[in-house]
Write a structure and sequence with these properties.
single chain, about 230 residues, 10 helices
């Protein structure tokens, strides 16, 4: 099965029990249209060290889906904070208010369910840091003279790092600081104007070869692995 199809199915399964039906529809539409790039990167990263672990196991697809859900929730939050749809609804526009409220709720549900899937993994702390960094960056973005584009792209950088950590720790490996730095830069390059490149574009054969090469470095006590891709 194609990686993108596999992780999309896992993500859909993870939110299959969410109610009411209208919220489930919003969540499903979000996942149907989303590039599965972060989740596919998690699978690519798990294969990179060639540990012999079965990377087709359902548990790995579930972890990859956790990364994707966190990203989709934060990406939706970012979009809502920029557009503020509740300010665009007309007086007595009940339907518009409900749609805006559902999107806010959907963002919360996506992040929460993503956390649930990663809670008992070695990527859990990194997932928490992604959310913390996102909140900090979006606060800084409101400041005068802030580089808004750069701050927005930090989300993709941090999520790509999370994907690599999720994939490699799932097969018992710890990514080196160099690999995490590469993943962060790849994320920044892949996210443009709030849109993420598809997995088959962002994760080219050359990119996968580089990830495989950097995964062979392993980690050492001299490597400083930042808690966030935005740390100095």
């Amino acid at each position: 099965m194609d990686d993108a199809v596999r992780v999309r199915d896992a993500a859909r399964e993870a939110i299959d029990d969410i109610h009411p039906d209208r919220l489930q529809e919003v969540l499903g539409d979000r996942l149907a249209d989303a590039p599965m790039t972060p989740a596919v990167l998690a699978l690519v990263s798990a294969r990179a060290p060639e540990t012999g672990v079965d990377t087709d196991a359902g548990g790995l697809a579930e972890r990859a889906a956790g990364v994707q859900l966190i990203y989709e929730g934060l990406r939706l939050t970012r979009s809502l904070s920029h557009d503020e749809p509740w300010l665009r609804t007309q007086n007595n526009d009940t339907a518009g208010d409900i749609d805006a409220d559902l999107e806010i709720l959907a963002a919360d549900v996506l992040v929460s369910r993503g956390f649930y899937l990663l809670a008992r993994t070695d990527a859990a702390d990194r997932a928490v840091e992604v959310v913390r960094s996102f909140g900090r960056d979006q606060t800084l973005r409101r400041g005068e003279g802030a580089d808004r584009e750069a701050l927005d792209r930090n989300l993709e950088a941090d999520v790509f790092v999370l994907a690599v950590v999720t994939g490699m720790t799932a097969v018992g490996k710890t990514p080196s600081a160099r690999l995490l730095e590469y993943a962060a830069e790849l994320g920044r390059e892949s996210g443009v104007d709030g849109q993420l490149q598809r997995a088959d574009v962002a994760l080219s054969e050359t990119t996968i070869e580089q990830i495989t090469s950097l995964s062979a470095l392993g980690s050492s006590s001299d490597d400083r692995v930042p808690s966030s891709a935005t740390d100095p």
